[in-house]
Amino acid sequence: MIFGLRVPALRQNIRTRPSPSAFDGRVFESYLTGEMVKGHIENFIGAVPIPLGLCGPIDIEGQSAKGRFVVSMATQEGTLVASYSRGAKIINACGGCETLVYDNYFLRGVQFLTASLKEPHALIEWCRAHEDQIRRLIDPSSCCVTVLDIFYECPGTTVMVSLQLDTGDAMGSNMATKAAGILSGYVAEKSGLARRVLVLPYPEDKKFIPVRQKGKKVIARTVLQEDILARITRTTLPRLNEFIDNSKSLLALHGAYALNVHVANGLAALFQALGQDVAYIAEGAQAVVESHFLDSGRLAVSVTLPALIVGTVGAATGLPAFKAALALMDCYGPGKANKLAEIIGAVILAGEIGCACAQCAFEFIDAHERMGKHRPLT
């Protein structure tokens, strides 16, 4: 079966210059066939359309992302793209935002069961003595993987060996699992100390575990100006700062790890549009929004995403629609993953500002009533 998707052209009022090879300025076609999706899905019968919109433009001055970007977002929630675009408009009017990826690694762990309390220490020492050989086995196993570190934990008679990996521009899940398999096979066969492999891999993926954060650590920051914020959003810097502080205090009081307004919302729309693994939102959404005054008329607002797991090669990024959406930002292919992460961070910041300002101006409910009201089709 074939599924066709037509994506609307760029609107004339979005002033940007996407790559001609990425987007023809009118319409691009995307079809999925059974042959195209081999390795992506089983029992294929077609595809489900998700509305696709354009957010921005947004001005970014980062380490890897520099310039003005229009970003694809796929969502069924009315007002979401409008809110993120308004946040981008505010950021642009205030001089843009800066972005930074300050760390990046993937984690995979293997558990080995030993016979008594005498063996765990011996097994750890054996692994440490053979780390160079472990690296030599794993590094050539996939095109993008490099072992950065190997570390150990010992609950009872179980030894957990963890690999910290660089997975290049790939998201990295499958190659990390393959690396864990190589590790487990080598240790189980050669050490003579592991009674059996208990869990391969340790099932930590796609759930938030604070001490096992992995992925790219991304920060996006802008400095908001009083007159611009008042003109565009009908609220004030002190009100916005108070909203962010009070919201985080109550979230923390109630036990939340995600001290932000609605980061998961933006990540879901971005991941669905850009061919990313949506399940990693469970980890990526644990973000923190922060604000403080530089002086009476300027408020610095930032968002930190400590576990953003994205890639620009492999997985679904090569499917036509996702490839085109990534290429629209010049984020498809090798050497682009940090750039994509910085753009995502900037868009998430825009969404935090847009939504928070709507709350502060008491316009959030009205906006959803006017723009996001879902009425049954008749």
Question: Which sheet architecture does the biggest sheet show?
Answer: 9 strands, mixed
User: What is the number of independent domains?
Assistant: 2
Shape: globular
Distance separating the two termini: 29 Å
* CATH architecture descriptor text of the largest domain: Alpha-Beta Complex
Descriptive notes:
- The protein has 11 helices and 11 strands.
- It is α+β, with helices and mostly antiparallel strands.
- The radius of gyration is 23 Å and the shape is globular.
- The two termini are 29 Å apart.
- Strand 6 and strand 7 (158-166) form a beta hairpin.
- Helix 1 (80-93) packs across helix 10 (337-360).
- The protein has helices spanning 80-93, 119-129, 131-138, 173-190, 226-233, 237-253, 263-274, 281-284, 320-327, 337-360, 364-371; strands at residues 3-7, 28-32, 52-62, 66-74, 97-113, 146-153, 158-166, 196-199, 215-225, 288-295, 298-308.
- It has 2 domains: 55-102 and 215-371, 3-hydroxy-3-methylglutaryl-coenzyme A Reductase, Chain A, domain 2; 104-211, Hydroxymethylglutaryl-CoA reductase, class I/II, NAD/NADP-binding domain (Alpha-Beta Plaits).
